[in-house]
């Protein structure tokens, strides 16, 4: 709870910084602040507490995911320093920073909500900030389009979420997720149809938020159009927050009625895996490629959501962490390359292996991690999720996931092949210090998670 | 699981020295040959004489009818099967040892002169030594696997030596052909060994023999084993249908032809059957097969020999024919007769080849008899020794070939009259084409160019010495096996008796042939030989007939001269289809079917991706529409299917 | 502990080599591999002393608690043989590169050593999951080696190779997961899996998951199409790694992770597996006969040879298993030899078409001698290393089915056909106009080839130590996997 | 205790708000003008509000009504952001037709 408050304060400070003319020092201060918050967050470890009359709860689940989210935001803020360099950006830097931190607030709420209201608020805080950030390149039509598409579809989906919440409230008379859970346990065999419809509507809305097929349409367009840094944010923090919220929703509220949603979840999971991987095969734009890859990752994570038993939560966490570090490394490198070459196409990476071997090696490792190849974190995430799904008897889905991972390797390799075997283009690519730092840290983390996955699975 | 055997036998040292000496010679020549120059030839010859001395030692010291197993090590084992590295010394192997080391050392000596000007001098001797090593392993091993090592090893050396002049691709082709044809046989040998392993759990000769005796007469297992072994033999001893490599093998230097392709290696098959005599005796059907194959080969090769013009090719076909004769003997269960012919044949055929080598040496490399003639005047020693060899092979008493051949023919007469007729006919042909060879080469006048004529000279002493020794042997060797009509002690048979004792028990010999009958047979054989010699004399000396140039040969002669087109038939039936199959596999199966399938999967996946991609139209209206529609469908499915 | 050191030496060397430059890179790598080799001999001496071995060689600590994964490494005869093979070949592979100049050689050798690490890991892992990690890890360095230092068309070829093998291994992963949750011990430890078999009704399914993975890696037809292209495109040292050691992973895995784990499944599908292997032997041999590209020819010949090994293993008898192990060692040595010879030829003449080569023996007699020895080794001439193995394998197949043995035995003939044809066209005859100069061997090349030639004879003449090394474990595997 | 809200049976509220919600959805799907779509989304939210209020009233539980306030606040924020985005789009492409916004696809 404290984490949330401090983060909100940090956001406010960002807004106020403009007044004190602190633009120059803003990012370091924010980064420092987040680092402090990160360590404060650790204090809630093993101190489960409930706040605000049961609106928020701190649990190890929320602490772990909060830590991850804060870490991601930390990285994003470090990257932001060298990302927002144009004069227009300079002017708005404090706004951007503040909104980014508010995004984090939304995510934190989504991790620790204990009430539908907080879930809704969290999602909306997160989303609204992102609508703004996605459209923040005011003079670029692409950015506008991305922001507006995201906004339209996001609020459309929110309406379904709300309608679902309302129906559930109507049946159970409470917004508390524990209360709903208790109701469900009591009425597991004869559930009110209204309740089921409400639950399904909520699931649909959450599927939208995690960009699962067939509600994934927004993701590629928005990822492509949004500024690269925001794409990085969306593909990591937002996705993880949505999944954590979704997981919590299902595991606390709906766990006894999951049979009623099984077909939807299974179909969605399968479709997400296939669509994400298959369409990604044909992409030339790197961001769009990562968007589809993100969709496919949503498919794998859905597998964890479907299994929802035993240590699925730690599997999900490990997967999220692995996915996040790899994605961040990939985006950090991609942003550098985009800046140097002025194109977001994969051809921009041509010959990177010769021009800047370290960068190429980093991206290769990131790609291998995303593709799920040991010893990188991505592999272990997948492994645990598959293992959990297998344990709970979803062999066919696991098999499908395996097949789609094979497909997935194709397009990750496409990038690697471009870097190492295509003739180099003339642009010089040189990452700034902060980017180098981020890349090294993320890759190292990816390997560390890969070599000692036990450290992370024991967290939950 | 290991057995330790302490050797106390006084035969141990000479036994292991026999193969070790040539091996040592090989290493010296292979590693330091370049530096040694011509000394390497002498070293190679010396080690072989050493081996010969050791063999003689064994011959003298092994008690009559005894046998000794000399174990070097337990080579390896798996399951309950132990394969020792051990040598078996008994009369049979000593016979072979003497032939190999004796004739081998003479041929080495001869080679010093013959190869004197060749740049690969030391290489040649290293190969020869290696060959002797493997050949010795072949005949000394106490189990089939050691025999097989030698068996394949001699094949390798044959390959290396046939293709000795590797600049010439035709020679290389011949070498390759020899190796591959031998390998076809080797597969049969290996399968035979597997069957022995499977049924007897051992490859040792004694164990296998005991096991086979337990299975009894006419058991299908033994028939299969022996048939497979015989496939191996067909390859190594150039029997129908795997004989075609031997004439081609004449591409190698002539001493090689003498040593490998006449005296020793090609008789390995006879040795193997003689060694496994109990097995074969227990499989009468296999013996019939051997008899038929041997007879057919003998006749077939003899016919082809009639029309060959290359001096070495004639000898090669004669070798094939003689080998056929030996197999016919084996097929009738007359193992001693077969072995006897091996020995005598080794002498006179080595002599003939070396003589031919001397001729070729004199002619400066020319091998076509049409370009020779009248050489008797120029190279007298060669002529004289060659003539002795020819008389011996033709079966004129009292030369060596007569005795051994007569023994076989006599057995054949007893066994089956048709076979006897065919073999006699083949012998007659042999006498004819051998004398044809002699007349064309040595009598009448020289047909070559003046330049060549000027060059003709007698070979050096290193070459003529072996010729003389071999000629002497070719004259006297037959006396170790005098027929019963002359003497009652058949030295050779008695010496080998212990080896074939068990076979004799299994298939008792027929009644003793009457002396008068045998005299008639001898008379017939000699008469036939003399008639064909006379016929040859009439045609090639009186009429001075010279074979026509290749393009003028017509009709049946053409077919014969072209070896019945067997090579061409093999080419069309086996080689071409395999090449075609290879291309088919690569282009159709590999590239088109398998790889296409792999690529098709990738392609289809990609196409599905492309199709699905179009769903992403970019219109936010469509997106929301799709969302709602899929929501409705999913809801409907969920509600109506589950609830 | 010793096993761990064995595992760590290459890993540490792989990291250290990144900081070096120039010639020192090669020397350091060579030094590291030699140290590793010497250490292997030490381990072997410890291993011979069976009592001490158990505690010194095995490590078993928990790595991840759920799903339970242990860091379980150990050595038995089979592992030691494979480790020995890797460590024997590694110095040769490094040495082979001494007279070649490579861009960014420190990365190259780092990858080579990393590969070494992964390969050792595969052979010493006794936990299925750990094994899987190393199995996959081995793929990455070789992929980058081929991609970066490969020849023409490298991006497509290596991609195909990567995806193909990865597809196989993911199926294997599925198999492992299935195994884990469907056995009642919930453990992937080899020692548990071999005792506690999964219900035989599910074994057939797992068999295919594993079999396809291994069939791709080995490769058996019809999963082999990645191999000829990859072998001919990869840089020589990569090809040596791939053919010499990496494909042994597949064969080793058949013995370690297929036969004893799911004996019933194996027994059920053995006929199909053997049929595939034997057809592969003949098929690949026949293709090799008409190949003109020297590296592809060797690639197909390798398919034939490993097909034979796999067939022998699937024959499920002692001589098949033991012969397979012996032959793995032999094939590893020979195949590295032939590919190195091919590389020397291609490097000197710039030509890999056997029809436009010829007469090299005239210019390089020493090379010719080594080459023929290696060629004879690979056609399994007696007293060379592959003879005993091939003999036992064929006998194993024979015991299973005599017709299969006769079919597989055709390799004896066909092997001679294509190998001698190749040798004749490349080395013999008169000089081809494309070959004008051909320098005889350099010191490092001679050292490599001489070592290989000596090894060919040493293992051919003294097979007993190897057979004895693998006998206990082969017996164990045979006992477990033999189903009536 | 009767109150004005409860003068109407609860199911009617449910039907009405579902109906309103569906009108909103149809509007979003069928109209092409961004502003009208925005309005339709507001309509959907209001349908939810109505539903929550009625449920809250029938259950005698004020939580629902509190929730409505949250929704209203969020909706206001959303509209503000949405309109701002719309303005900047209008500046760039001089249109509010959502179909023109299809630069990014496939």
Brief summary:
By secondary structure, chain A is mainly alpha-helical.
Which secondary structure elements does this structure contain, and how are they paired or packed?
The complex is a heterotetramer of chains A (460), B (643), C (484) and D (106).
Chain A: H1 2-20, H2 23-43, E1 49-51, E2 56-58, H3 60-83, H4 87-112, H5 116-134, H6 141-172, H7 177-186, H8 193-209, H9 218-225, H10 228-253, H11 262-280, H12 286-307, H13 312-341, H14 352-355, H15 357-371, H16 377-391, H17 395-421, H18 433-451, H19 453-457
Antiparallel strand pairs in A: 1-2
Helix pairs in contact in A: 1-2, 1-4, 2-3, 2-4, 3-4, 3-10, 3-13, 4-5, 4-10, 5-6, 5-10, 6-8, 6-9, 8-10, 9-10, 9-12, 10-12, 10-13, 11-12, 11-17, 12-13, 12-16, 12-17, 13-15, 13-16, 13-18, 15-17, 15-18, 16-17, 16-18
Chain B: H1 12-36, H2 39-61, E1 68-78, E2 81-89, H3 91-114, H4 121-140, H5 144-162, H6 169-200, H7 205-215, H8 220-236, H9 245-248, H10 254-263, H11 268-275, H12 277-281, H13 284-306, H14 311-331, H15 335-363, H16 380-394, H17 400-415, H18 417-442, H19 450-455, H20 461-476, H21 491-506, H22 515-542, H23 555-561, H24 566-613, H25 620-642
Helix pairs in contact in B: 1-2, 1-4, 2-3, 2-4, 3-4, 3-10, 3-15, 3-20, 4-5, 5-6, 5-10, 6-8, 8-11, 8-13, 10-15, 11-15, 13-14, 13-18, 14-15, 14-17, 14-18, 15-16, 15-17, 15-20, 15-21, 16-18, 16-20, 17-18, 17-22, 18-22
Chain D: H1 10-30, H2 34-59, H3 63-93
Helix pairs in contact in D: 1-2, 2-3
Q: What does the overall shape of chain B look like?
A: globular
Tell me the strand percentage band of chain B. under 5%
Give the amount of beta strand of chain D, in percent.
Answer: under 5%
Count of helical stretches of chain B: 25
The ordered H/E elements of chain D are HHH
pLDDT < 50 runs, ≥5 residues of chain B: 1-7
Q: How are the strands of the largest sheet of chain B arranged?
A: 1-2
Helix content of chain B: over 70%
Biggest interface, residues from each chain: B-C, 48 and 52 residues
pLDDT averaged residue by residue of chain D: 88
Supply the helix-strand structural class of chain D: mainly alpha
- How many strands, what sense, and barrel or not for the largest sheet of chain D? none
Q: Can you put this structure into words, describing what you see?
A:
The complex is a heterotetramer of chains A (460), B (643), C (484) and D (106). Helix content of chain A is 78%, strand content 1%. By secondary structure, chain A is mostly helical. Chain A has one domain (2-457). Chain B is mostly helical and 643 residues long. Chain B has 25 helices and 2 strands. In chain B, a hairpin with a 2-residue loop joins strand 1 and strand 2. Chain B is globular and about 115 Å long. Chain B starts with 11 loop residues before the first helix and ends with a helix. Chain C has 484 residues and is mainly alpha-helical. Chain C has a domain at 262-484. Chain C contains 21 helices and 2 strands. In chain C, helix 10 runs parallel beside helix 13 (263-290). Chain C starts with a helix and ends with a helix. The chains are: A mainly alpha (460), B mainly alpha (643), C mainly alpha (484), D mainly alpha (106). Chains B and C meet through strand 1, helix 5, helix 6 and helix 24 of B and helix 8, helix 13, helix 15, helix 18 and helix 19 of C.
């Amino acid at each position: 709870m404290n984490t949330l408050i401090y983060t909100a304060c940090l956001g406010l400070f960002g807004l106020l910084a403009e007044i004190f003319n602190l633009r120059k020092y803003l990012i370091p201060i924010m980064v420092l602040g987040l680092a402090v918050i990160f360590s404060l967050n650790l204090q809630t470890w093993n101190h489960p507490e409930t706040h605000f009359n049961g609106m928020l709860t701190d649990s190890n689940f929320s602490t772990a995911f909060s830590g991850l989210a804060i870490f991601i935001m930390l990285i994003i803020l470090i990257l932001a320093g060298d990302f927002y360099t144009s004069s227009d950006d300079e002017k708005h830097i404090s706004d951007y920073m503040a909104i980014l931190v508010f995004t984090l607030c939304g995510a934190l709420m989504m991790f620790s909500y204990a009430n539908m209201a907080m879930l809704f608020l969290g999602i909306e805080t997160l989303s609204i900030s992102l609508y703004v950030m996605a459209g923040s390149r005011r003079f670029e039509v692409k950015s506008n389009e991305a922001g507006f598409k995201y906004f339209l579809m996001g609020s459309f989906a929110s309406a379904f979420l709300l309608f679902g919440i309302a129906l559930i409230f109507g049946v159970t008379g409470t917004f508390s997720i524990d209360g709903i859970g208790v109701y469900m346990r009591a009425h597991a065999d004869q559930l009110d149809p209204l309740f089921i419809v409400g639950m399904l509507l909520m699931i649909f809305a959450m599927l939208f938020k995690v960009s699962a097929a067939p509600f994934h349409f927004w993701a590629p367009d928005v990822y492509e159009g949004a500024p690269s840094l925001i794409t990085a944010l969306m593909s990591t923090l937002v996705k993880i927050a949505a999944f954590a919220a979704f997981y919590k929703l299902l595991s606390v509220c709906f766990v006894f009625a999951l049979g009623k949603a099984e077909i939807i979840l299974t179909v969605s999971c399968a479709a997400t895996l296939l669509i994400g991987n298959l369409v990604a095969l044909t992409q030339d734009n790197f961001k769009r490629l990562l968007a589809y890859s993100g969709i496919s990752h949503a498919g794998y994570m859905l597998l964890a959501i479907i299994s929802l038993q035993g240590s699925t939560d730690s599997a999900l966490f490990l997967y999220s962490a692995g996915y996040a570090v790899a994605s961040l490394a990939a985006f950090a490198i991609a942003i550098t390359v985009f800046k140097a070459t002025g194109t977001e196409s994969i051809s921009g990476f041509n010959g990177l292996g010769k021009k800047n071997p370290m960068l190429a090696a980093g991206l290769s490792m990131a790609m291998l991690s995303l593709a799920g190849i040991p010893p990188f974190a991505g592999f272990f995430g997948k492994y645990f999720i598959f293992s959990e799904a297998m344990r709970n008897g979803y062999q066919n889905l696991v098999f499908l996931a395996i097949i789609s991972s094979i497909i997935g390797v194709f397009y990750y390799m496409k990038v690697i092949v471009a870097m190492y075997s295509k003739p180099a283009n003339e642009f010089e690519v040189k990452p700034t210090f902060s980017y180098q730092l981020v890349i090294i840290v993320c890759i190292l983390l990816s390997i560390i998670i890969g070599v000692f996955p036990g450290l992370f699975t024991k967290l939950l | 699981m290991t057995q330790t055997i302490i050797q106390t036998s006084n035969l141990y040292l000479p036994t292991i020295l026999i193969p070790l000496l040539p091996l040592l010679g090989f290493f010296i020549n292979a590693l330091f040959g370049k530096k040694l120059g011509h000394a390497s030839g002498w070293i190679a010859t010396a080690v072989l004489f050493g081996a010969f001395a050791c063999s003689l030692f064994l011959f003298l010291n092994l008690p009559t009818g005894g046998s000794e197993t000399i174990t070097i090590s337990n080579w390896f084992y798996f399951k309950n099967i132990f394969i020792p590295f051990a040598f078996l010394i008994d009369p049979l192997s000593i016979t072979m040892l003497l032939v190999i080391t004796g004739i081998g050392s003479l041929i080495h000596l001869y080679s010093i002169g013959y190869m004197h000007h060749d740049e690969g001098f030391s290489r040649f001797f290293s190969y020869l030594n290696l060959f002797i090593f493997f050949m010795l392993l072949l005949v000394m091993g106490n189990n089939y696997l050691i025999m097989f090592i030698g068996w394949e090893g001699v094949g390798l050396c044959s390959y290396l030596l046939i293709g000795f002049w590797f600049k010439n691709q035709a020679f290389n082709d011949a070498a390759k052909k020899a190796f591959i044809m031998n390998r076809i046989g080797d597969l049969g040998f290996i399968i035979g060994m597997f069957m022995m392993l499977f049924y007897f759990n051992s490859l040792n000769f004694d164990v296998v023999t005991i096991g086979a005796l337990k299975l009894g007469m006419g058991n299908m297992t033994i028939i299969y084993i022996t048939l497979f072994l015989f496939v191996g033999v067909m390859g190594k001893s150039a029997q129908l249908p795997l004989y075609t490599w031997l004439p081609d093998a004449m591409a190698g230097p002539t001493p090689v032809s003498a040593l490998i392709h006449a005296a020793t290696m090609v008789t390995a098959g006879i040795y193997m059957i003689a060694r496994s005599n109990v097995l074969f005796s227990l499989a009468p059907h296999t013996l019939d097969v051997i008899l038929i194959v041997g007879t057919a080969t003998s006749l077939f090769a003899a016919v082809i020999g009639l029309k060959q013009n290359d001096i070495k090719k004639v000898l090669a076909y004669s070798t094939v024919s003689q080998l056929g004769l030996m197999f016919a003997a084996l097929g009738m269960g007359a193992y001693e007769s077969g072995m006897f012919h091996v020995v005598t044949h080794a002498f006179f055929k080595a002599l003939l080849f070396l003589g031919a080598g001397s001729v070729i040496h004199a002619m400066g490399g020319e091998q076509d008899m049409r370009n020779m003639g009248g050489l008797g005047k120029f190279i007298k020693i060669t002529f004289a020794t060659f003539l002795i060899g020819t008389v011996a092979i033709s079966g004129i008493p009292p030369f060596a070939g007569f005795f051994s051949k007569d023994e076989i023919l006599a057995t054949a007469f007893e066994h089956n009259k048709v076979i006897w007729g065919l073999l006699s006919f083949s012998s007659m042909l042999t006498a004819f084409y051998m004398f044809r060879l002699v007349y064309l080469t040595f009598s009448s006048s020289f047909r070559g160019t003046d330049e060549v004529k000027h060059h003709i000279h007698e070979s050096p002493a290193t070459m003529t010495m072996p010729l003389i020794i071999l000629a002497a042997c070719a004259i006297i060797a037959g006396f170790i096996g005098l027929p019963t009509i002359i003497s009652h002690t058949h030295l050779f048979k008695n010496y080998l008796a212990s080896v074939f004792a068990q076979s004799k028990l299994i298939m008792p010999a027929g009644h003793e042939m009457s002396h008068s009958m045998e005299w008639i047979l001898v008379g017939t054989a000699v008469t036939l030989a003399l008639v064909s010699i006379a016929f040859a004399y009439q045609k090639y000396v009186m009429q001075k007939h010279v074979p026509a140039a290749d393009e003028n040969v017509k009709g049946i002669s053409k077919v014969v001269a072209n070896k019945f087109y067997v090579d061409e038939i093999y080419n069309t039936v086996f080689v071409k289809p395999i090449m075609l199959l290879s291309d088919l596999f690569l282009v159709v199966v590999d590239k088109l079917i398998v790889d296409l399938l792999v690529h098709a999967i990738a392609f289809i996946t990609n196409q599905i991706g492309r199709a699905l991609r179009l769903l992403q139209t970019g219109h936010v209206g469509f997106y929301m529409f799709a969302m709602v529609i899929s929501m409705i469908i999913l809801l409907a499915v969920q509600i109506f299917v589950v609830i | 502990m010793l096993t761990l050191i064995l595992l760590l030496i290459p890993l540490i060397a792989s990291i250290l080599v990144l900081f070096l430059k120039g010639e020192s890179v090669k020397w350091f790598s060579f030094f590291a591999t030699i140290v590793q080799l010497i250490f292997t001999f030490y381990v072997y001496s410890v291993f011979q002393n069976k009592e001490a071995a158990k505690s010194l060689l095995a490590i078993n600590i928990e790595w991840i608690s759920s799903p339970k994964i242990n860091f379980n490494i150990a050595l038995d005869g089979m592992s030691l043989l494979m480790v020995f093979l890797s460590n024997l070949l590694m110095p040769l592979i490094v040495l082979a590169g001494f007279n070649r100049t490579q861009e960014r050689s420190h990365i190259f050798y780092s990858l080579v050593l990393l590969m070494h690490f992964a390969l050792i890991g595969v052979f010493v892992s006794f936990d299925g999951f750990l094994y899987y990690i190393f199995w996959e890890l081995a793929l990455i360095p070789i992929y980058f080696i081929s991609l970066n230092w490969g020849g023409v068309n490298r991006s497509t070829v290596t991609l195909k190779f990567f995806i193909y093998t990865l597809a196989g291994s993911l199926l294997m992963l599925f198999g492992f997961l299935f195994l884990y949750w469907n056995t009642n011990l919930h453990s992937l430890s080899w020692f548990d899996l071999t005792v506690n078999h999964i219900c035989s009704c599910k074994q057939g399914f797992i068999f295919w998951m594993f079999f396809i993975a291994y069939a791709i890696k080995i490769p058996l037809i019809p999963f082999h199409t990645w191999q000829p292209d990859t072998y001919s495109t990869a840089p020589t040292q990569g090809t040596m790694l791939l053919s010499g050691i990496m494909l042994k992973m597949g064969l080793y895995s058949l013995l370690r992770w297929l036969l004893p784990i799911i004996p019933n499944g194996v027994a059920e599908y053995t006929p199909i597996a053997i049929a595939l292997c034997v057809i592969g032997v003949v098929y690949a041999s026949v293709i090799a006969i008409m190949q003109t590209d020297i590296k592809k020819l060797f690639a197909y010949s390798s398919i034939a040879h490993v097909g034979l090994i796999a067939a022998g293993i699937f024959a499920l008898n002692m001589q098949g298993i033991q012969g397979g192990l012996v032959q793995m060692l032999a094939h590893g040595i020979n195949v590295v030899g032939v590919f190195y010879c091919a590389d020397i030829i291609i490097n000197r003449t710039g030509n890999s078409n056997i029809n436009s080569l010829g007469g090299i023996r005239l210019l390089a007699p020493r090379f010719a001698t080594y080459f023929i020895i290696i060629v004879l080794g690979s056609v399994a001439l007696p007293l060379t290393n592959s003879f005993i193995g091939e003999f036992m394998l064929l006998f194993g197949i024979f015991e299973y089915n005599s017709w299969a043995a006769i079919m597989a035995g055709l390799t004896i003939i066909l092997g001679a056909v294509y190998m001698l044809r190749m040798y004749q066209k490349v080395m013999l005859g008169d000089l081809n106009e494309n070959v004008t100069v051909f320098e005889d061997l350099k010191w490092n090349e001679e050292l490599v080839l001489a070592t290989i030639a000596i090894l060919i004879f040493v293992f051919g003449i003294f097979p007993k130590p190897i057979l004895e090394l693998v006998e206990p474990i082969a017996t164990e595997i045979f006992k477990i996997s033999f189903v009536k | 205790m009767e109150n004005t809200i409860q003068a109407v049976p609860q199911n009617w509220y449910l039907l009405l708000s579902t109906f309103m919600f569906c009108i909103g959805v149809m509007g979003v799907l069928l109209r092409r003008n961004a502003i009208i779509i925005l309005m339709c989304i507001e309509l959907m939210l209001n349908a939810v509000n109505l539903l929550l209020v009625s449920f809250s009233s029938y259950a005698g539980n004020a939580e629902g009504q509190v929730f409505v306030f949250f929704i209203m606040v969020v909706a206001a924020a959303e509209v503000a952001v949405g309109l701002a985005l719309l303005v900047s789009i209008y500046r760039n492409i001089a249109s509010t037709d959502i179909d023109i916004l299809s630069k990014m696809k496939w």
